[in-house]
TrEMBL record:
Keywords for the protein's UniProt record, in alphabetical order: Signal
Keyword Kinase: no
Organism: Nocardia tengchongensis
Alphabetized InterPro entries for the sequence: RmlC-like_jellyroll, RmlC_Cupin_sf
Protein name as it appears in the record: Cupin
Top-level lineage group: Bacteria
Keyword Signal found: yes
Range of residues in the leader sequence: 1-19
Length: 136
C-alpha cells in the first residue's frame, strides 16, 4: 500500500540491498487523528495500471477495502496472498516480518480505502528491499 522510506529504516539490510520504489501510486489522506499513543489515518490510495507500491512494511496494522480494480497482493515469499475485486477487504499486519507488495496487473486503476493504525509519529510505511522475487 503506500508513502515509503529507505532501506536504512528496515534494520539489518545487506549492504547491496536496495529499497524498491513505488510506481504509479498516489495517496490522499482523508482523515487523521491521534488518540493516546496511536495515530488513526484514513487514506485513499490509487495504483495506476502497471503500478506497484514497492516492497514495504508498516509499523502498525492496516485495514483496507478495494473500492475499484483487481487486487494482487504479494507476501515476501513472492506468492500472491490476497486477490479479489471491488469490495475485497484485507488486513496488513505490522512489522518487518510482514514485508509485502501490491501490484496492479489490471487495465483500470485500483482504488483502496485504507485505515492505518500506527504508533504515534510513525511513517505510513517503511521501504524494504525486494525479498528475492522476480518482480518489483
Amino acid at each position: 500500500m503506500a508513502g515509503l522510506a529507505s532501506c536504512a529504516l528496515v534494520g539489518s539490510c545487506a549492504a547491496t540491498a536496495q529499497a524498491t520504489p513505488s510506481n504509479g501510486v498516489t495517496g490522499v489522506i482523508i482523515s487523521r487523528t491521534t488518540i493516546g499513543d496511536t495515530d488513526y489515518i484514513l487514506r485513499e490510495i490509487t495504483i495506476a495500471p502497471g503500478g506497484s507500491t514497492g516492497w514495504h512494511y508498516h509499523d502498525g496494522t492496516l485495514y483496507a477495502v478495494l473500492r475499484q480494480g483487481e487486487l494482487s497482493h504479494y507476501g515476501a515469499d513472492c506468492a500472491i496472498d490476497q486477490v479479489g475485486g471491488a469490495g475485497t477487504a484485507f488486513v496488513e499486519r505490522a512489522g518487518l516480518g510482514n514485508v509485502h507488495l501490491e501490484r496492479n496487473l489490471g487495465t483500470e486503476a485500483q482504488i483502496l480505502d485504507v485505515l492505518y493504525v500506527l504508533p504515534a509519529g510513525s511513517p505510513l510505511s517503511e521501504d524494504a528491499p525486494n525479498p528475492g522475487c522476480a518482480f518489483d
